[in-house]
Amino acid sequence: MRERPASDGPAIVVEGLRKDYGKVRAVDGVSFQVRRGEIYALLGPNGAGKTSTVEILEGHRRRSGGSVRVLGFDPGAGDRHFRERAGIVLQSGGMDAELTVREMVSLFAGFYARPRDVAETIEQVGLAAKRRARVRTLSGGQARRLDLALALVGDPEVLFLDEPTTGFDPNARREAWDMIAGLRRSGTTVLLTSHYLDEVQQLADRVGVMSHGHLVEESTPDALGGRDVSGTVISFRLPARLRGSEPPAGPWDRTAGPAGEFTMHTDEPTRVLLALTRWACAHHTELPGLTVTRPSLEDVYLRITGQAGIGAGDGR
Questions:
Q1: Which of 136, 226, 246, 311 is close enough to 97 for a disulfide, judged by CB 3.0 to 4.6 Å?
Q2: Rounded to the nearest 5°, which phi and psi values hold at 234?
Q3: The whole model's pTM is what?
Q4: Average pLDDT of each block of 10 consecutive residues along the chain (316 residues)?
Q5: Quick one: CA torsion of 102, 108, 114, 120, rounded to 10 degrees?
Q6: Contact 192, 40 (CB under 8 A)
Q7: Residue 124: enclosing H or E segment and its boundaries?
Q8: What is residue 301's DSSP assignment?
Q9: Among candidates 141, 273, 300, which has minimal Cα distance to 217?
């Protein structure tokens, strides 16, 4: 990979972005920044405006208003220098089915002034054993790896990953995560969209959530929606010799039955846990089934967006 230019400025700057489709405003005044070398995940349900926003950043769709800069370029201007410095992995890409994997990656390498080594790129995405296979013979997961190779061969400074691990088995997903994390360590900026929220939790430095054309929440995955401090659930069971005893004072809910589980929802987990563990130590006992859980990223995402489920894409 080429050495990344040293810069303190953000790689992506979006200010007051708007996109209209006739009388429908799909993106309404969205503003955010992505730092260089950061993985930023942009999430949103169907119709949230996420796809329109990403396509504008990629230069595939014109904005109706606002300002967008990627590596200092206006993506809508179609500048060749911008194209050579940005890589894109679309949800589905068009490839010549009769070319081999190596021929396809070599073809794309020819579009760039300073491409990466073709064989190295193919190996990095885990397709070395398939380098002579024709595109039409690849499985869905293998074709997705080829999509990633085509985006990487130009050695981009900014990489747009749209659902990059769709069709991957669990092991291939983990390998892809390691590779994407390696890109970040090399200084590549990544804008990620994914409906796998465990993927977002694993990879993203920050998350932006869009709903109804607006950016409604932005934070780290751990702190999104206050999930780092709020809504913690503490639960445990009393050991047999202490059944009938009362746990430390607090609004504990108890399930039915002699071995019932005590549960509490709290915004002060540290205080509650301190009192509970002191009580257990005073009784010289362990607490079976003691768990401390926070809302998952998916729980918070669904609450923020008001959605009942997560789809694989969002239309516009």
A1: 136
A2: -110, 130
A3: 0.80
A4: 63 98 96 97 93 95 96 91 87 76 94 91 92 92 88 92 84 87 90 93 96 96 82 86 77 72 87 92 90 88 73 45
A5: -30
A6: yes
A7: helix 118-124
A8: H
A9: 300
